[in-house]
Structure formats: structure tokens, C-alpha cells
Amino acid sequence: MALIVQKFGGTSVGTIDRIQHVARWALDSQARGDDIVLVVSAMSGETNRLVALASQINPIPFSREYDMLIASGEQIAVGLVSLAINTEAEKRGIIQRNIQNRAAVAAPLLGHQIGIRTDSVFSKARIQAIDTSTLHKELAAQRIPVIAGFQGVDAENNITTLGRGGSDTSAVAIAAALKADDCEIYTDVDGVYTTDPRLCSKARKIKRISYEEMMELSSLGAKVLQIRSVELAAKYRIPLHVRSSFNPVEGTRVVSQDLLGSMEQVLVSGVAADTAQVKLSLQNLPEQPGVAAKVFGALSRASIVVDIIVQDVPSNGLLTVSFTIGQNDALLARKILQELRATQFSEMRIVEEADLAKVSIVGVGMQNHPGVASKMFSLLAEAGINIKLITTSEIKVSCLIDGKQAKKAVEALHEGFQLHLTE
Amino acid sequence: MALIVQKFGGTSVGTIDRIQHVARWALDSQARGDDIVLVVSAMSGETNRLVALASQINPIPFSREYDMLIASGEQIAVGLVSLAINTEAEKRGIIQRNIQNRAAVAAPLLGHQIGIRTDSVFSKARIQAIDTSTLHKELAAQRIPVIAGFQGVDAENNITTLGRGGSDTSAVAIAAALKADDCEIYTDVDGVYTTDPRLCSKARKIKRISYEEMMELSSLGAKVLQIRSVELAAKYRIPLHVRSSFNPVEGTRVVSQDLLGSMEQVLVSGVAADTAQVKLSLQNLPEQPGVAAKVFGALSRASIVVDIIVQDVPSNGLLTVSFTIGQNDALLARKILQELRATQFSEMRIVEEADLAKVSIVGVGMQNHPGVASKMFSLLAEAGINIKLITTSEIKVSCLIDGKQAKKAVEALHEGFQLHLTE
User: Fold this and answer.
1) Is residue B262 scored above 60 in pLDDT?
2) A89, A320, B331, B398: which could form a disulfide with A105 (CB 3.0–4.6 Å)?
């Protein structure tokens, strides 16, 4: 008997039909003798609907109020999925309701009800602790906890959310807290691909991938898993299984690198593209110690994730710093930089370039093979693509390019590194 | 300086425009030097949307899951109203947000966050206690608590709801707990009328009305206030002010009868009509002690409110019991009665008559004036309307009639008792 956490994303609970499917799936899983814990996202479209309502009031909403608002999406999904599980269980004769319409296989649980404690960084909160006592009690009673992903409460009992895709992190954190045997991530694709199939028709499903490669792919725009969830899974060695809720085939297993045989080690395992990138260049900054700290400190206090950072050689005592951020953070970043100019760097010029894409290659194999980066640059050059910024790590190389050329770049890299052939 | 609870119903927060209006209104009220506490309902249409989702899964939903689902409607409204208040306060220069987008005049609060404890009768829960410590703390800091109406938590921390219109009860309970000076109920009409203006064009706004009359009017289908909220207001002597959020004119004050001058005492103060009524007749019941207790006990355990009850004189040892319930409870009631027939009263025949209306006249004046009831029957007879059941109390008389004749009946009674002339 195993303990399995099953996480269902927005499209997997996007309609009443899909919700009923999830209910049958969970009950079937339980009937095989396993303990099942569900973590659900908001129905697809729901979070966007709520965000749109907030934007009508304020384009940069106050964060605490925003989190309370959007957390309601997961609450709706928890209510409906639990209702569907009980309804199906009644149909199967597992439960009989009493006169007050109560009976339960499902145990609907919000963040505050199982003590998912987070810090107070609203909209990007990090989980600090989970109280598993209620979960253990419900499991012992043969019930299926249905938990709202994406949400928690801070020390003052304010509702917090974990950022887009945060339900993945909720699922892995709960799996870790419960020492689950497996964490299944159900989504609308049947696994992790060598690249985005919409950008490259030759994309191929990867059977097994290491946590490290998956982290790089996640950080590079593969929307399948939130990167924090992979970090957490790696830390607690929770095996992930990314699979489709529409198609019961085996998906992609994300595991420790030591569980991957060396025969499977390929040079490059995936190509990623992230298209909603903005490049900001700050020109005419004084060449003084602490300038970068002031700029990036201000951005970081607002929880803006800065990606590629490049600093030019100073000329005439003046400095240019360039960096990229996601389109979502652009409005807030601009506001912060304008304040900085008003209060500290009066000469600073802010140059913004939007609609950029970051294309990246990822693979643990490249650690021991020199020349992978230069091959990437050649492939892009041959395709007539100009590179605006470059950044590298031990197992990835990323290039910032014009967003309109993202598809062409991905195809050239996928073909050039022969990803359609491997495995 | 007064402490005022302001409750805004679904239409009052039904659009972003309306929500922004509420925000300005609350801040204006605070600027006059009063302590303001808001209680909000779900945006109009939202609860129906959620109920429709649940119905697609199960026409008689499991109650705990249903409550968790529909409570999210108020959470959305709390988030948006709080966001609008902070946005307006920022515009007025009252607050300045920090780098993490935090600052607050509004304090968004859900039922569980201020310990609104209820019993576990899901969908019709009753409030048992409210912990006012957080509210006092927020008020002392010059903030405006924005509280989700309609919801609470039971002893096991399950989310409960108070029944349709329950936000009125939330508001009055909070006003009572805080010993508020006034409880303003903002709705889409500008007060309580002598009858439903849609049914009778001569309907007139009532300036002041006693708790007792208001309770009768509420129980009789005047949708302005949930009856439990009026009971609660009477018990704790909380003055209510029913008024429009669209129109700043004085509405209707609901106060103790001893505050109404005797000059104001009129025979009949209002005519009410409730159109979604179903009459159930149980025929061929055995004439034995305890039969009624069994029937109504079963219905009451399912929290079905039974209204008019009539028992015929038995003939041949067999009994007929008739009663009315709301259309909403009809499906569940039928199920319970069928179970009762299967297990106890095999000879029982269930006759159902739907689409009925209950028309009623209400007035503290009628206590000391005989002949009011008979005048009502005459007026209905003159209008050609057949009476199916009659029930009376000290300050009201109700008649069950064909639903299609409701409008005609209301007009005849309004005219006959000269309600267009009084006050």
C-alpha cells in the first residue's frame, strides 16, 4: 500500500466533465489499495477571471487583498471535486448520506485548515510548515483529502498565495510532509518534451529526467512544472510523475540523477523557450561600489525575479547594467526604477526592450563536453538569428533573442542537437 | 463618534463600478469621524453561478462541500471591496503602499479569521459566537474591517453558510457583538415598502417599522431582510436602517415598537406575497399519537422550514395533514416523504400542489382591532380569488392562493386597506 499525492492542474478540473473524471480516477486509485491525497488548482480560466476583476480596480493591486481574492479559485475547485467524489462514491455504494446531506469520502481542505504556514510575501509566498495531523486522521478514516493548492496562511492568519503554478509546490510540499511514495502531477500534456511541441513538430516525450535538468527546463519556460516544486522534490527526494489526466499512459518520471543509468546520458536533453521577456538597460549609472546592490535590492524587495544580468565595461566613469524580467513584472519594475531615478540616480536612463524570447539548451551531459555552447551559437547564426544576451550554467546555455524568432530558433536547436533521435 | 456596521448586498457590489462606489462611501463615512465595519455579500449572480456548477454534479449536493463552494463568492467580494478601498485611500493620500504593495485602510476578513463560530447545520447554520478581538484591534488602528457575510466555521473548522440572505444576519450579529450604534443594510431598493412595487404600483415606502412587523414581512416573502437578522436585531435592540446603495436618501428604520409613537399605529402596515410555495397534502395517515411528530420531525432534521400546517378532522380513523414549504426544498422533502412511506406509513398518499402564493397582511395595529381578517377574506372574494389555506398570528393573516393570482390579490388588499394613503 502506497501513499500517493495526485495534483490536478487547471485544465484537469476545467469543466464539470473533467471534475467528474478526476473523481472517478481518485476513487479508482483508492480502490487499488493506496492512500490518495488530492491537490487541486483553480478551474482553468477562473484565476484569469479574478485577476481581470482586480485589474479593473487597480493595475498594480495591493498584494494582501489580491491574494485573498485569487485564492478563492482553488476553493471553488476543492468544493466541486469533493462534491463529485462523494457523488461518485454514493453511486458506487461506498457511502450513504444522512438526512442532513452529509457523508464523505472526500475531505475538502483549504490551506488554513491544514495549517499550510507561509511567509508574508504575498503572491509569491514560500511554505514554511504543514501540519499533517488532520491529513493523517482523514487518511486513517479511509477518506481522500482534497486540498486547495496555491494557498496558505501567514503568521497573522492572512491568506497568501504561492505564485502562478504554485499548486505544484503545494503538492510536493504535502508529499514531503507526508513522506509520500509518489507525487503525480496531472496536466494537459502527457509528459515533459524535448521542447515545446507547438514550437517544434519533432518534439519527443522524455521518459526519465533528473531533477536538475527539470529545474533548468522549468526555469526556462517549460510550463509543465513550477521550478520551486522541482527544487523541493529534489531536496526531499520525492519522485515526480508528470502525466496527462486526459490519457492514462505513462508520462515523464522526474528522479535523482543517480537513478538514471549512464547509458541514458545525452549531451542535450531539451530545448526551452520563454517568450514573455523584457530587457531593461539602465544607462549612465555612476561607477561606484554598491550601485548594482541598490538596483537589484529594490527589485528583489518587491519580489521581482531578475533573470539574465549583464554589466558592460564602464566608460567615462559611467556604467550600463542590463537585465531581463518577465513581462508580468514590467509595470511594477518600471515604477521602482523611476523612484530610484527620482531619489538616487538622477542621470540614469531607462531603456526597455519588450517581446523578447530566451531560448535555452539543457542537459547534464554538457558538463563534461566542451563546445556545446559554441555549437549553439553557430546553429543560431546559421538560422540568421541575432543574440542579444547570453547566460550559462553547468547544465544549460541561454540566449536572448527577438521573440518573433523563437520558433525558428527552437527548431534549429532541436534539429542541430538531434533531439528527435535520442533515447 | 459612532460605530456603524454597513452591510452591502449582492447588487450593491454587483459590478466593479458599484464596488468602487461602496469603497468611496465607506471612506466618506469614516471621514465623518465614525468607526466603520463593512459586511459584504457575493457579487450578484456569483452565488447562482456556483450553485449551477454544483447542480451539474449533483441536484441535491452534499452539504459540507456545497458550503465550502458557495462561501467563495463572499471571499471574492471581500477581496475586491478591500482592494477598492485601499486604491481609493491611496488616491486620497490617506495611505502609501510599501515596496511589497502593502498598505491598508481595509482589513479583509473571512468568517474563520474573526472566529464566526456556528453550529454544523450546513447551508442553514446559526451563529453561536463571534470573537471581536481582531475587529477591535483593526478599528483602533483606524482601519475598516471588510467582512465576508453569509459564512462561518463550525467546531471542526468546516466552513458553514447561513442560508440565502444570511449576510444580513452576519451584519446584525457583528453589530450586536460590537455593540454598534447602527446597522445599515444597503440594498437595491431604498427601503421597506407597504408591498412589492412590482406587484402593486401604489406601493409606498415605510419610514419606520417595528421589529415585529418587519419579521412578519420578512417571513412572508419581502426579500429585503432575512428574518433571522431581524429577530437578532430585536433581541439585541440593534437599530436597522434599510436603504439604497444607489440613492443616498433616508430609507426605512426598523426599531423597537416602543420607539414608534402611537399616532403612527396603523391597522395594517404592509402586504406581502411569497410566490414560490408548494403545498403538500399527506392523505391516509393513521389516526395515532405521534404521526405529526414523525412527519415534521423528519422534515425538520433535514432543516426544511415548514410554513402553514393544517390538519383535517379525521374520518374512518384516517388523517390528512397539509403544509406548505418553499419550492427550493421540494425535491428534498419529496425524498424524505417517500422514505417515510417506504418505512412507516405504507398507505400514505402524497399530493403535491406547486406554483402557489401566500399573500399576507401585517400590522401591529390589528392586535386590538377585530374584523381585520374577515375584511381580508372579503376583499379577496370580491376579487374572485379562492383561498386554499389560512393561517394567522397576532399581527398578521396569511392566505394561500393560486400563484397566478398573487398580483391581483396584492393590489386588492393594498387598495382595500388604504395603504397608499397612510403615514
Assistant:
1) no
2) A89
**What's the rounded Cα separation, in Å, for the pair A149 and A36?**
15
What is the percentage of chain B residues whose pLDDT exceeds 90? Answer: 63
CATH of domain B3-188: 3.40.1160.10
For A53, which of B16, B99, B336 is closest by C-beta distance? B16
Candidates B20, B94, B96, B99: best to mutate against A (most CBs of A within 10 A) is B99
Residue B359 exposure: Cα atoms within 13 Å on the Cβ side: 29
Chain B within 8 Å of A94 (Cβ-Cβ)? no
B259 touches chain A (CB under 8 A): no
Contact B56 A122 (CB under 8 A): no
- Distance (Å, rounded) from C-alpha A315 to C-alpha A321? 12
Average of per-residue pLDDT across A133-151: 97
- Residue span(s) of chain B under CATH 3.40.1160.10 come to 3-188
The mean per-residue pLDDT over the stretch B304-320 comes to: 82
Distance CA A24, CA A303 (A): 40
Contact B365, B267 (CB under 8 A): yes
Dihedral over Cα of B381, B387, B392, B395: its sign: negative
Is the CB of B404 inside 8 Å of chain A's CB atoms? no
Q: What is the per-residue pLDDT across B341-354, written as a single tens digit (0 to 9) for each? A: 999 999 999 999 99
* pLDDT higher than 60, residue A14: yes
Q: Inspect the interface and report whether the beta carbons of A100 and B159 lie closer than 8 Å.
A: no
* Whole-number pLDDT of residue A261: 62
Start and end residues for every CATH 3.30.2130.10 domain found in chain B: 271-416
CB pairs under 8 A between A and B: 163
A48, A10 contact by CB (below 8 A): no
Is B104 in the A-facing interface, judged by CB distances under 8 Å?
yes
Q: Do A75 and B72 touch (CB under 8 A)?
A: yes
Burial of residue B209 (number of CB atoms within 10 Å: 0-12, 13-18, 19+): buried
Single pTM value for the model: 0.82
> CATH second-level architecture of B271-416?
2-Layer Sandwich (3.30)
Of the candidates B102, B121, B332, which has its C-beta nearest A63's C-beta? B102
The beta-carbon neighbor of A100 closest among B53, B68, B122 is B122
Of the pLDDT bands very low, low, confident and very high (cuts 50, 70, 90), residue A99 is: confident
